[in-house]
Amino acid sequence: AAKVAGSGSLDYEAYLRERAQGLAVEFIGWVTREEFYRQIDLLVVPSLYHEPQGMVLIEAASFGIPVIYARRGGLSEVGAEFPRFRGFDPSRADGLAEALLAAVAQPASVRDFRTTSGPVARPFTLEGFVDGYLQAYERILSAKRTQGWVAGLSSRASGES
Hints:
Distance between the termini: 72 Å
Shape: elongated
Structural class: mainly alpha
Number of strands: 5
Radius of gyration: 22 Å
Oligomer: single chain
């Protein structure tokens, strides 16, 4: 069954539930990222909005979840970093259907992604960003130490000249 997570206006949720009647769609409401990604095998992001940053793709990759995404805005840029993600043109009526059929036709590629995505997604996680900043600061401090700049700054700060 398809799972729809999150919350919105009551009117919009009612509209979606009405449209999904009789289909294998489960509305699970708001759940944590961890809980949501544990429940799915494939994430579909059919966004028509030109999102400035495709964080949802990075999140999915960090949990080992393959993605089918609309090639719009930041989703296109982030999606290109994950060659096994499948993008589609949302302006074509059959674009999403083709991407879904291709994923269904190659279930091994979906399963394989779960075991290979973590290291690729790590630089985009909070821990990855923090590690990147710490490494950059360490490189700068190391370079400045070898030039004597940091030592000179320390002695001036303590009143020595």
